[in-house]
Write a structure and sequence with these properties.
about 400 residues, alpha/beta, 7-stranded mixed β-sheet, 11 helices, about 35% helix, about 20% strand
């Protein structure tokens, strides 16, 4: 149902639960579509098999008894929201194992404590442990370190870190700014926009955002007229001034903000009458990490519906006595996806070709797929900010 959604700071962003499209190369033991179709999930009568194998801190837990070894790295004992989210993800993993994974997977869950250095050590240990898949870590430095490691026998890693760009065989699960910017730009291009400008924070991430946006626009015959990096509040004003002198009447200005508040750029754009009748502004999911502002008014944003947890919602609440959120959906989906591949192809069916299936996977928030560079691409709701709220414009930005 279409409704306004208040703009507020999200914890992380949701991906689909109960994935449903078939995978390339999966032929044995039925299809992944059969295994992960929400309507086909038979909730087990017995509780998830959970065996604590460490001390009372539960540094290590084992779930399931299946032949496929999977490692999961979560900040279970971390303080604050990191620990809270880690424990939610553990509950999500338990539900996914009960639904799908217990007879297929042995899932070993390690506590990273929210410590980036320790998480990095555990990640290296996990990828050399014989696990077919590693789910996590949530700590960005650890995910980035794993992405730099080479080795032909390294298992697939489904990283749960926010703002992770990905790497070959190390896939970014959480929605990133490049994904959001690309989907938003694509949604405008699909309606006829042709000339786009990208304003992006200078740095290594700028190239990633630019490439993803350019690729998305090319599908619709549109293009970036120019990309203008900026470095600070003063740099933001200069970037907008440069835009005015370099590009005549763009259809759309895409504003990536990185870790910063987008307000300085928006102030400069507003002084130029943007957004206006002839020029739209596309923001990103990173905007929503900051308090809403009248400056956001009229901008478009493609982002995952932070309130949607799909077909697992009722079962999760019944099992754990609290409402599922996006952290739950991320973790459930990755365990469910892993179980589906194990069901379809067995313990030896895990490879990059399977995870990079161009048809993607369907979940409660729409389609997503993993790219060869480790980034993810998503079809997601498209919103316009009106009176401080996200007003739904389209339920889906695109399909694969």
């Amino acid at each position: 149902m279409e409704s306004d959604r208040q703009v507020r700071r999200p914890r992380t962003w949701v991906v689909a639960s109960a994935l449903a499209l078939s995978l390339l190369g999966c032929q044995s033991k039925g299809s992944v579509s059969d295994a992960l179709d929400p309507a086909a999930i038979q909730v087990a009568d017995q509780p998830a098999a959970v065996v604590a194998v460490a001390n009372a801190s539960q540094a290590t837990q084992s779930l399931g008894t299946g032949p496929t070894k999977v490692a999961m790295l979560l900040p279970l004992s971390a303080s604050g929201s990191a620990g809270e989210n880690g424990r939610k993800m553990l509950d999500a993993a338990k539900l996914a194992m009960t639904d799908l994974g217990n007879p297929l997977l042995t899932l070993t869950v390690e506590d990273t404590r929210g410590d980036a250095a320790y998480s990095q050590q555990l990640a290296v240990k996990a990828i050399t442990s014989g696990a077919k898949v590693v789910i996590g870590p949530t700590e960005l430095p650890a995910a980035q370190h794993v992405a730099k490691l080479s080795g032909s026998n390294r298992p697939v890693v489904l990283a749960l870190a926010d703002n992770f760009a990905g790497g070959p065989g190390v896939y970014a699960v959480c929605l990133g700014e490049a994904d959001s910017a690309a989907a938003g730009a694509g949604a405008i291009a699909a309606k006829g926009g042709k000339k786009f400008v990208l304003l992006v924070p200078a740095g290594a991430g700028a190239d990633i955002v630019e490439k993803r946006v350019a690729n998305s626009l090319s599908v619709y015959g549109a293009a970036l007229a120019i990309t203008i990096p900026y470095t600070s509040a003063d740099g933001a004003a200069k970037a907008v001034a440069d835009m005015g002198s370099l590009v005549d009447a763009p259809d759309t200005v895409i504003v990536a903000s990185g870790d910063s508040n987008p307000s300085p750029i928006l102030i400069a754009l507003k002084a130029k009458g943007i957004p206006g009748k002839s020029t739209s502004v596309v923001g990103t999911n990173r905007w929503l990490e900051h308090p809403t502002s009248p400056l956001f008014e009229g901008a478009y944003i493609a982002t995952i519906d932070q309130h949607e947890t799909g077909p697992i919602s009722e079962r999760f609440k019944a099992s754990f006595n609290y409402q599922a959120d996006v952290n739950v959906a991320y973790a459930y989906d990755m365990v469910a996806l892993t179980a589906g591949i194990a069901s379809a192809a067995g313990p030896n069916g895990f490879n990059r070709q399977v995870f990079e299936n161009p048809n993607g996977f369907r979940g409660s928030t729409g389609l997503f797929r993993f790219r060869a560079d480790g980034s993810s691409e998503r079809s997601m709701p498209f919103y316009r900010i009106e009176k401080g709220a996200l007003k739904l414009v389209a339920k889906s930005t695109s399909s694969f």
